[in-house]
Amino acid sequence: MTSTRAGLSIFCTIFVVVVWLNQRGITFGAVSDWFTSIREAALHEQAILKSWKPETSFESRLKPEDHAYHEPRTFVEDWVVREELRAPDGVQKPVLTVNGQFPGPTIELRSGDTLNLRVTNELPEETTAIHFHGIRLVGANSMDGTPGLTQCPITRGSHFWYNFTISEEQSGTFWWHSHSATQRADGLYGAFVVHKPSSSPKPPSINSHISDELKRKSHPIARRVDSLQASENPVEHILLIGDWYHDTATAMMKWYRSKTSHGYEPTPDIALFNGVNTFDCQRPIKKRICNSKNGERRFIRLDHEMPNRLRLVNTGMLADIEISIDNHLLVVIEADGTEVKPQKFRSVTVSPGQRYSVILEPLRRVRAGDSFTLRAAMSPEDFQVPNVELDLEQTAIVYYGSSPMRLKSPSAHNQASIAELPFSPEILSPLIPVVVPEPDVTYTLFVNSMRKDRLGGIPYGYVNQTSWKPDPWNPLILADAENIAKDEIRQDQLVVTTDRRDVKVVELIINNIDEGPHPFHLHGHHFWPLYTHRSTWGWGSYNTSSPPSLDHLSNSPPVLRDTYTIARRGYAIIRFRADAPGLWLFHCHVLVHLGTG
Questions:
Q1: What pLDDT, on the 0 to 100 scale, is given for residue 1?
Q2: What does 236-264 look like in DSSP terms, one character per residue?
Q3: Residue 159: what pLDDT?
Q4: What's the average pLDDT block by block, 10 residues per block, for the chain (597 residues)?
């Protein structure tokens, strides 16, 4: 009798559910699809979590406690550059390593430290040189690592010593990379972090004021992180992220410098997170050695008892990358080594060469074992050539605690609540405002890529109709040392000089008359981006008869940067102090543009 009643109850429940679904136009097929999608999502989550293993190929966690609480010291490093067959995402290719590591070693120093670095070249054929991106080398121009400008390249079997001291005023997120040919795209790069000296005599313990404050609020990150407080002593992590190509950089450059490319940049195949990812070998790809099992999904371990700072670096050749983490806000506290007023965003877009530091702010309570998807979306506007191998959104996993146990899905409510927080570098403000000085001299530049019939239809990059082609074995620093006049430098090389004593502040108006964006980097200096124009139609070049107003600078000074993107068909006005004597390169960080002038 009891079983009969139970069966009748179940039948009635099913009947009521069926009537309710039919009234709303929901069919059994839709319900079945819903259950199938839930099952597939669960299987996908299990597969992701099963692929977890502790970080061995690259240590993303930094150690500020080993540097920020010490007096300035001298560090001696010995690097050997080699070429090795690797499969960072499961696809095999020659990769450039340093001491067997890819990415190369992370340099961690504090302001005022001295670095003595010996780089030995054991590459099969190529020369090399190392540039320290964003580092101010006042009085050490010859250490800038630019072949043809500040040094001769390091030949096979030889070595070069880079010796310099970090300024007491400089700290932040930087990186190092090869400045020889296209080697950066084959893996010759790494992180360079300069920690700000602490006023405290020793590292904060678990009983520090921040921990006490967090404990007082019942759970370490149950609340939204107070960004100003959290940025003082967070747990720090580095994320090197950039597009990656399965062809060698030499092959890509050869294709780009041919009529076949029509001047279009090669489209990447995937993005790497700290040197790894997993490529789907089922995709239609060229004939390559590919085994997805040899790839590695990147898991980044976060501290579940302390705030977390993620230092982002775009190491790629071409693509802007929009970075977000499900159910988190990203609180920007640094841009290119400049501290900024904390500002919350749903995502942060990083151009090649740029860096940002963000404090991760969970939008809901997190526990040890909680895992979230980190998304890296590449902009389709950067690509002119279709590539069926590329998935525009690449993913990694961040997790709290010792191991990932639960992969949290993005909450529709949380996503909607942060949709009104679009990222824009122009709205960032420096933590310590400064008065932008008036310029002593202004130069106007026009940049573009062109194919000329008289040059065989091969694309070249131009600045004011000049295409830079340095002589690596006769670097200009030698000419400068011999007091060779500017007039004696080849006239097809654009050289902006500030040799007059009354020139202390330089303004550049950079017109991008190209169909794609150009992320420009200035060696040895930081600059103020004063104004950026993005044209919605036609050509948005600077109009000398109707210049834009810069009145906003008095109330909202810009953030000092060393890498900044000039939009397609737009322009930017930047200004910098010419306070570092020497020869410094100003170039687009898209590698094929740099390699063609």
A1: 52
A2: EEEEEEEEE-SS-HHHHHHHHTSGGGTTP
A3: 98
A4: 50 46 54 48 49 64 92 97 95 96 97 98 96 96 94 97 97 97 95 91 49 39 43 87 95 85 88 95 79 84 93 96 95 97 95 97 90 94 88 94 72 50 88 92 83 61 72 80 51 60 86 86 96 72 69 82 92 93 90 68
**Cα–Cα distance list, 222 to 206, 215, 361 (Å):** 17, 10, 10
Q: Is residue 362 a part of any domain in this protein?
A: no
Say whether 115 sits in a helix, a strand or coil.
strand
The domain total for the chain is 2
Distance, CA of 451 to CA of 536 (rounded, Å): 25
Q: What is the pLDDT of residue 465?
A: 67
Distance between CA atoms of 402 and 302, rounded to whole angstroms? 9
* Amino acid at site 534: R
Question: Taking the alpha carbons of 430, 433, 435, 437 in that order, is the dihedral positive or negative?
Answer: negative
* Sheet-wide strand order for 518-522: 563-566, 518-522, 586-588
Residue that the structure tokens 């040899």 belong to: 294
Closest C-alpha among 415, 404, 590 to residue 515: 590
Which CATH number do you get for residue 465? Answer: 2.60.40.420
| Residue 216, pLDDT score | 36
- Tell me the residue range of the domain where 21 lies: 2-50
Taking phi over 0 as left and psi of -120 to 50 as alpha, with beta for the rest, 456 belongs to left
What is the identity of the amino acid at 69? Y
Q: Locate tokens 């060779």: which residue?
A: 484
Kindly give the residue spans of alpha helices, DSSP state H, lying in 113-248.
209-216, 227-230
Q: In the prediction, which pLDDT does 530 show?
A: 95
**At which of 50, 70, 89 does a domain end?**
50
According to the model, what pLDDT value does residue 559 have?
96
SS3 assignment, position 185: helix
DSSP 386: -
Is 479 part of a structural domain of the chain?
A: yes
User: Strands 563-566 and 114-121: what pairing?
Assistant: unpaired
Cβ neighbours, 10 Å, residue 8: 10
Tell me which DSSP letter residue 416 carries. Answer: H
Report the alpha-carbon distance of residue 558 to residue 517 in Å, rounded: 20
CA angle 243/260/189 to nearest 5° reads 25
